[in-house]
Structures are given as structure tokens and as C-alpha cells.
Design brief:
alpha/beta; Rossmann fold; 5-stranded parallel β-sheet; two-stranded antiparallel ribbon; 5 helices; 7 strands
Length: 192
């Protein structure tokens, strides 16, 4: 791994990506996940997996492009899993993608569940529905899930309360992951 430097309370080592389960490519959900990744890691996510781009390939269990995306996500340190709220839960598009992961496939991956919705009535949806499936896959979820009103996706101040409460927990989980992996550079650990 490259030399670490602190950035927004997190070190710059993590491989950070987003997985977005909105049927509309380049959606507000995608923009929100991208913004959140930048706020947590100090740079754009790579990869940025917009599931809508796979089309019917998501339903083809032999699709090499989808399999490659699954393997890439499994190798990341930090992943924002994002979905709009559909019928009070996350989308079937995201569920079909997550179904491709074997048990504990996200073991050690730090995950952030993110959902957008039209109003506050579904604010618990990412905690109640998305978080458990990520935990079942073995992800470490050190902070509460984030729910945003979809019209606030482009307002940085809408993210601030969650970031203030969660950034340190996510940094600690990433530093623990790095330490568990035996990475030699521990000079820039983020204090708990």
C-alpha cells in the first residue's frame, strides 16, 4: 500500500467504491453516494458501480462483467451501498447484485448503507432493510446507516450531521482493517 496521509479524518489508503442500485443511470442516488465517498476518503470512488449499466446482465449468472464487479467490490476497503427507497425498502436491482455474493464475501469490508427517499417516513429503511443484508454478507458497519431526502442529495450540509457522528467510527474501522492486514505504515492512525 502507498504511504498514508490523513484526509478528512481518514487515511488515504482505503480502496473506496460505491455500488448504486438505482434503475436510472447517473441518478441522484449515484450522485449522493459519490459525494459521500469523496467526503469520507477525500477523493472520488474507484470503482463507481452503477448497477443500471449492467441491464439484463445482472440476471445472467454467467455474465463476466457482473462477476468482475462482484470481485472488485469484495476487494475494496470501504464501500457505500446506495439505493433509492422503493416500496419502503432498497431496490430489487441492488438485491439481485448482492445475491451474487457468497456468505461472508464482504468479511472485513467497511460498508455504509445509504438510501434516499421522498420524505422522512422511510428514514429507518436503510437501518432496517439494507444494513442487515450487508451484515449477513460479513461487512463491518461501524456507523448508523444514512438516509437522505432525495431533493437534498446535492446539499453538502445535509450530510454534515451524519459525517460528524460517523467519520471517526469509520476511520477506526478502516485503521483496524489495515492493522489486521499487517500493513507496515501505522504512523497515521486516526485516534478513536
Amino acid at each position: 500500500m502507498s504511504q498514508s496521509t490523513e484526509n478528512n479524518g481518514l487515511t488515504d489508503f482505503p480502496r473506496v467504491g460505491i455500488v448504486v442500485g438505482n434503475p436510472k443511470p447517473g441518478s441522484r442516488t449515484f450522485q449522493a453516494a459519490h459525494h459521500l465517498a469523496e467526503q469520507l476518503a477525500g477523493r472520488a470512488p474507484d470503482p463507481a458501480v452503477d448497477l443500471a449499466s449492467f441491464g439484463s446482465g445482472l440476471l445472467d449468472w454467467s455474465d463476466a462483467e457482473v462477476d468482475a464487479a462482484v470481485q472488485t467490490v469484495r476487494g475494496l476497503d470501504l464501500v457505500i451501498f446506495a439505493s433509492p427507497t422503493f416500496k419502503a425498502s432498497y431496490t430489487g436491482l441492488l438485491k439481485v447484485f448482492l445475491d451474487r455474493f457468497p456468505s461472508n464475501a464482504l468479511d472485513g469490508v467497511v460498508a455504509v448503507p445509504l438510501m434516499l427517499g421522498a420524505g422522512p417516513g422511510h428514514a429507518l429503511a436503510p437501518e432496517v432493510f439494507l444494513r442487515p443484508v450487508l451484515a449477513e454478507l460479513g461487512a463491518s458497519i461501524p456507523a448508523k446507516a444514512l438516509y437522505l431526502i432525495d431533493t437534498d442529495h446535492d446539499r453538502p450540509e445535509a450530510y454534515e450531521p451524519w459525517l460528524a457522528a460517523s467519520r471517526g467510527r469509520i476511520a477506526a474501522a478502516l485503521n483496524a482493517r489495515r492493522a489486521a492486514a499487517g500493513a507496515p505504515d501505522q504512523a497515521n492512525e486516526v485516534p478513536a
